[in-house]
Amino acid sequence: MKNSPMEALARNSMLILWTIFALFPLFWMLVISFKSDAQMFNTTFVFDPTLENYQEVLIKTDYFKYFLDNIIVSGGAVIVSILVGVPAAYSLARFNFRGKEDLAFTILSFKFAPEILVVLPLFLIYQKIGLYDTYIGLIWVYQLITLPLLVWVLRGYFEDISVEVEQAAQLDGYKWYQIFFRILLPLVKPGLVASALLAFIFAWNSFTFPLLLSGFKIMPVTVASLRYIASDTVHYGQMAVAAVVTATPEVILAILIQKHLVRGLSFGAVKG
Amino acid sequence: MAHIALEGISKSFGKVQALRNIDLTVRDREFFVLFGPAGAGKTTILKTVAGIEFPDAGLVRFDDEVVNLVEPALRNVSMVFENYALYPHMTVYDNIASPMRSPLYRKDEAVIKQEVQKVADMMGIGSLLERLPSQLSNGQRQRTALGRCLVRSPRVFLMDEPLAHLDAKLRHLMRTELKSMQAEFDTTTIYVTHDYTEAMSLSDRVAIINLGEIVQIGSSDEIYYTPRNEFVAKLVGEPEINLVDVDLVSREGTLCAVFAGTDRCLPVNDDVAGVLSHSTIPKWRMGIRGLNVGYCFTEEENCVEGSVYNLEPIGNKAILTIKVGESLFQAVAPNDLRAELDSPIYLKLDMNNALFFNGETGDFVVRHNQAELVRGR
Amino acid sequence: MARLTLKNVFKRYRNKKNEAADYAVNDFSLSCDDGEFVGILGPSGCGKTTTLRMVAGLEEITRGDIYIGDTLINNLHPKDRNIGLAFEDYALYPPLNVYENIAFNLSAKGVAREEIDRRVREIAPLMKVDDLLEMKPAGLSGGQKQRVNIARALVRNPLVLLLDEPLSHLDGKMRQILRTEIKRIHNKIKCTTVLVTHDQLEAMSLADRIAIMNDGKLQQFGTPLEVYDNPVNVFVAGFIGEPPMNLMKVSILEESGKLFFLFPKKGIRVAVPSRYRSALRSGMEVTLGVRPTDIFISSDDGTGSEVTVDVFENLGDEKRISIDVGEEDFLTLMTEDERRYKKGEKIHLRFHEEKTHIFDPETGDRIQA
Hints:
The structure holds 3 protein chains of 3 kinds.
Chain A: H1 5-33, H2 52-59, H3 63-94, H4 100-109, H5 115-129, H6 135-160, H7 163-172, H8 176-205, H9 208-213, H10 221-224, H11 236-265
Chain B: E1 4-13, E2 16-26, E3 31-35, H1 42-50, E4 57-62, E5 65-66, E6 77-80, H2 92-101, H3 109-123, H4 138-150, E7 156-160, H5 168-185, E8 188-193, H6 196-202, E9 205-210, E10 213-218, H7 220-225, H8 230-235, E11 242-251, E12 254-259, E13 266-267, H9 270-277, E14 284-288, E15 293-296, E16 304-313, E17 317-324, E18 327-334, E19 344-349, E20 355-358, E21 364-367, H10 370-375
Parallel strand pairs in B: 3-8, 3-9, 6-7, 7-8
Antiparallel strand pairs in B: 1-2, 1-4, 4-5, 9-10, 11-12, 11-14, 12-13, 14-20, 15-19, 16-17, 16-19, 17-18, 20-21
Chain C: E1 4-14, E2 20-32, E3 37-41, H1 48-56, E4 63-68, E5 71-72, E6 83-86, H2 98-108, H3 113-126, H4 142-154, E7 160-164, H5 172-189, E8 192-197, H6 200-206, E9 209-214, E10 217-222, H7 224-229, H8 234-239, E11 246-255, E12 258-263, E13 268-271, E14 285-290, E15 295-298, E16 305-308, E17 311-314, E18 319-323, E19 331-335, E20 346-351, E21 357-359
Helix pairs in contact in C: 2-3, 2-4
């Protein structure tokens, strides 16, 4: 491959353009979070920065409660998905049983259905059985988001580990749970970490489910942002603050794990 | 150390019958080889002994105790897998140490260190202990897998094609090393291979497996000199044994083998003739190994005329293919032999080493000096 | 049919950073006589396939000249070189049947239909594919596909036939059958043929002469017997022959006017053949090379070297003895007698005087007597 200076310049310019295009919304959000409502529409980059919005959102409302709700619901959903998904992925990878592929596809198909389609019947059912507006209810429904991802990524990982490796460990004298924790878990760890973090982010961003299945006692930040649309006016500044705070953990996570994420989600990591 | 018996083992995978009614006994401290083509069921037998495959029918006994329901870990066996089955996330050291760290066979870290070093030196991988399996060549992985197997003193070693993925030179060296270490093992060993040289070299006894059934069990001499049928005969030896349809005719009081397209009479040995003349088998096939096929360029007694079909010098010898009628014979010749293709040549068979098979079933019937060859060694 | 000549051919690839990498083919010269069957043999990555591809015109030549007959073909388009090429992977056109596959090249060239038919029907029985002409490639076995592939290369009456690992995908029995057939067809049509292979057995059994390559360089070019009996260096000595030649580091020891090869770790000594007297001195280190078939067991008359049998293997057709001489590898010999040896048994060895080779341990080159 040739690599002349002109080509390098062209390629780098394209990358810079793309970076600006991709990061501008985040930057814009950050900018308006420091604007007062008065300056919202008549300034662009030059304005008097104020922390007023931050005070309003973080101190005067229950924003931390919403933040905590989101952590509990998303974190809980991921933990449940790991507990259920790892054994499920293992079984799908290792055992042959009737309807195996159908079952695997069914789990994947959870992700196909538009959320708005399933949420209405769920709303009625949840009201009836008392899961409406509870942590458990949300964690449960979040499985639609987190479980398919984990199962499908981990199934690939388990399939990559040859059965003989487990059999060798059996003959070495290990019990099944020792084999699981000493041999299998370390081998699927990259995939587990990557898919769990990705699942966490998806759960964190979820909006439709918490909007309709909770709202009084429990309110994740995504839904809470709506509160800044008052009946008379939209508090863009406060909304931006809410969005910035909501996005921060995701941005930090994404930066921390990006290498891990790319490697972890591409299969075949235990070859050789 | 144990003797192991399989009684009427059958096993199917879906619609495929992998093993049919396998009966065999491996004696205490015996080096027992399971030999056969790919897909014959050899590995399944080995895994049944290990307990990681469950037979649909039949019993597995260790020292007369039925172990069908004993977990693999508790059977105290040690196995080399064909695909090595090393733990990818552990170093060579940890891989070899693994059996001695499990709750069942736990040893002191100090003892482990000593044992690992000893077995690693024996396998010639002493300098690689800190590496991960992904940083090793195939040969080194194979040695690591062997090391992990040999580090323990189990009741039985199970080895599944441990040399299959090595290149020719390394395979030759490792086979010799295994053979040289054999006396030190002093443990019952079951060894699976599809390479006849490994089977011949390493075994105390060989079981030949085909299509999930045992075809023959015997010493390497028995397998070589008196193969149970044509299938076994073809499996052992390079070049492959020559098999040709013959008619048995009596001429002037001597029994002769005459093969298709010729009228040349090849007198068979008296002891063979005794058996053959009393047989009612209508069709015969004669097998003769390349080593026992001679040739000459002028007509001699008991020679059969043919033509040079091919001549391949392959280093220390040449493979001479002679066409007689429609049959091809491969002979082992010196590597400096010169001959034009399609030029006339005479085939001279060493009838002392001819094997006679039933032409319809392919079963072995008789050869010269049979009893002595198998028993006398 | 014609001579094929390669004169000082080089090939260099450029790496990603646009730097010139090492030569893939380095000053390679070869002359292949009219009608000759030449094998290019070497381990993977030695440059043998690159060489073949340069002859075929699929790869640019960095430097040097290639001639077919008297024509310089460096700048000729592949289709104008009049070369028949059969690759390792069969590369048959799946929608066409066998007949059409064989005929494809001729019809692309606009050869008259009757002429095509005549040639296909001529070549098909030769490759034993005349019963398969109506079949599609998908229905063929590996051996049949390779036959069709070679038929397709031969049908255009090429000046030179190039075969790139034609047998490596086939199983043992099929490989042997096809090997025999290739040899017989060559004997019949006498087309100048170049075979590229990594399998020494294949090269030895098929080729009139073998060019052995390593690291892009020609190591030796000679008849199978020449390269087997007189390898020019350690590489050739170790690459040719099965079981492989014993290659061992030894030192030279002089005692009462006689020279010995000494295996230092075990103190085993073997008499040096007299022809090496002038080339060797006491204290020198050399690599000793002797084939397992060129070591004999002698009676205990004081002339042989006493060693201990470490491993005896009865392989049926042959018997091997391995002796631990303290090196990484065993010293291996083959015996033809019916005797069975035991581990620990003492035997006396003698090396074949004419076939004992010595190599410079630094350069690997053979030391001439």
